[in-house]
Structure formats: structure tokens, C-alpha cells
Design goal:
By secondary structure, the chain is mainly α. It has helices at residues 3-27, 29-34, 40-62, 73-96, 101-109, 111-122, 129-146, 153-171, 174-204, 215-243, 245-248, 254-265, 273-289, 301-309. Helix 1 runs antiparallel to helix 10.
């Protein structure tokens, strides 16, 4: 297989992995609603503990190599767990008290723009005008699908925190992906988050909080642990590894579209005209920006440093 053909296959695999991850994330909206009245910290601790155990078992069965973090890697992985898992979930809860869900959804929809600018700069390059334009189109489309809700100033502030945390989940993982890979980053971020949530849960909700969960709650936790965490994390980080954060970030626009489709599948009303317009925007942005993922990526700063020292 030629180098160009291998790069194309790798790019297609990255697109499929990232899109699949976002379908799981988008489809989790209805499931998360089941847990709205449950003890948040305890539920999240159970979710990430179960996900970590599943990942460890799957890694062992598939021969995936897992290594312990060292040095500055602890800082990056703690950053992933703290921003993308712990603070993100807290910000969603606090933000929902001041803003409608659509406001927080639109904040997340801005992630492609952040990735399109920040990811190349982190790697010592410059943003691609094509990817930047595609990110703007995807963001506009995702915002149309989500709708625009009402909010006060506190709600807008929490929405900004949600955006920063969503970006941190990906961008802070980039420096450790090369050594730990998608499996390692997923395992370490989930057990770190589980420890933090368990500690907060015991203090604020009590050690017996899990006993208040019913069968439906446990099924919802199971779905979040398996599909939205264990499976989606590995798929997403695989996409980042293959495409780079700037290009893979475009695929986050799939999540609100998947959420709208899940709503209809569960008996909700048919999408309004603006939702269809938003879906068209997302599709156009992906069609414009994703071909960049099939082109050979320039070597990262770490790779360049490795070559120069060889």
C-alpha cells in the first residue's frame, strides 16, 4: 500500500471513529435526563469506575499496552480529568440553573472554532483557512440545531466554563497521546475522575447515596459508562490521533444532529425548519473541512525534535 493510500485509509478511519463517538455522545442526551434527580457525584463516580474497569478488561483482551504516567504526563492527564470530566459535569449542573440547555449546547458547539485555532498553534503551526472556515460553518449549523435559549450573566459565565472544559478534554490530551495512545489516555483520565467524584460524593451525598438509585438509574449509568465513556473516549482519541484536533474537532457537529435524531426516534416531534437548515450547515462544513484529514499531516513538534536528535 502506497504512503498516500495508507494516509487516506487512516484519515477515513479517523473520521469514522470521531463521528461514531459523537453519535454516542449525542444520543446520550435522553439517557442523561433520566438521572436528573439522582446524586450527581455518586453517579459520575460509578460511571467512570465502571468505564475504567471495562477499558482495563478490553485492553487486556486486545493486547493494548498501558503504561504508568511519568513526570509532566501526570499534569496533562490530571488536566484532562479535571476539566473534561469533573469541572465539565459540574458546570453543566450549575449552568442549567441559570440558562436553558440550548445555551450550554451552543457553547459546546463553538468547540470546532477553538480547535481550528488552538490545535495548530500548540503544534507550532498556523490555523488552516479551510479548516477555520469549515469550523465556522459547523458551529453555526450546530447552533441552529440546538436553538438559542435564555440565560442570565451567570449562565453565560458557566457556558464559557463548559466551552473551556470541552476544549480541555481534547487539547490537554494531545501531548500524551503519542506515548499513551487512545487507550492509555482513556484509562488514566477515567480512574482519576472516578477518584475525584467518589471523594466529593462521600462528603456531599453520603456513602450510601448509591442505594437511592433504582433500576432505571442503573441502566442509564451503565449506558453512559459503556457507550458514552469507554467506547466513545477510545474512538474520539483515536480520531484525534489520526486526524489532529483541528480537523477532528469538526466532527463534534455530529453530536447535536445525533441528539435531534434520537429525540425523534424516542417519539419527539419532527425537526423544525431551522434544525434542518442547521443539519445542512453541519454537513456542508464537514464536506469542506474533513478532506484535510485525508492529507498527510506535517510532523508534530515532538516528532521533529525526535528526528533532529536521531
Amino acid at each position: 500500500v502506497s504512503t498516500s493510500a495508507a494516509a487516506a485509509l487512516s484519515g477515513m478511519a479517523g473520521m469514522l471513529a470521531g463521528a461514531s463517538a459523537m453519535v454516542f455522545v449525542g444520543g446520550s442526551v435522553a439517557v442523561s435526563g433520566v438521572l436528573s434527580g439522582s446524586p450527581l457525584f455518586t453517579v459520575q463516580a460509578m460511571r467512570y469506575t465502571a468505564a475504567c474497569l471495562l477499558l482495563l478488561a478490553a485492553a487486556r483482551l486486545t493486547g493494548q499496552r498501558l503504561v504508568l504516567p511519568s513526570g509532566a504526563e501526570w499534569v496533562w492527564l490530571l488536566g484532562v480529568a479535571a476539566t473534561g470530566l469533573v469541572v465539565f459535569n459540574l458546570a453543566l449542573v450549575e449552568g442549567s440553573r441559570h440558562a436553558e440547555p440550548a445555551v450550554l449546547g451552543v457553547a459546546v458547539a463553538c468547540v470546532p472554532l477553538v480547535f481550528a485555532v488552538a490545535a495548530p498553534l500548540m503544534d507550532g503551526g498556523r490555523p488552516s483557512p479551510v479548516v477555520l472556515l469549515a469550523a465556522l460553518i459547523v458551529t453555526c449549523g450546530a447552533a441552529l440545531v440546538q436553538g438559542v435559549g435564555r440565560s442570565d450573566l451567570a449562565g453565560l459565565a458557566w457556558a464559557a466554563v463548559v466551552l473551556g472544559c470541552e476544549a480541555g478534554f481534547t487539547l490537554l490530551a494531545v501531548p500524551v497521546l503519542r506515548r499513551h495512545g487512545p487507550w492509555g489516555v482513556s484509562v488514566h483520565s477515567t480512574w482519576l475522575a472516578a477518584v475525584v467524584f467518589a471523594g466529593i460524593g462521600v462528603v456531599h451525598e453520603g456513602p450510601s447515596a448509591a442505594s437511592r438509585l433504582n433500576g432505571q438509574d442503573l441502566l442509564a449509568v451503565g449506558y453512559l459508562a459503556v457507550a458514552v465513556t469507554a467506547v466513545a473516549f477510545v474512538l474520539w482519541y483515536s480520531s484525534i490521533q489520526r486526524l489532529g484536533a483541528a480537523v477532528a474537532g469538526l466532527l463534534t457537529g455530529v453530536a447535536p444532529v445525533a441528539a435531534a435524531a434520537a429525540g425523534v426516534a424516542l417519539g419527539g416531534p419532527a425537526p423544525r425548519l431551522l434544525v434542518w437548515v442547521g443539519i445542512a450547515f453541519v454537513t456542508s462544513g464537514l464536506a469542506l473541512g474533513l478532506p484535510a484529514g485525508r492529507r498527510p499531516r506535517p510532523p508534530s513538534s515532538e516528532q521533529r525534535a525526535g528526528r533532529s536528535s536521531a
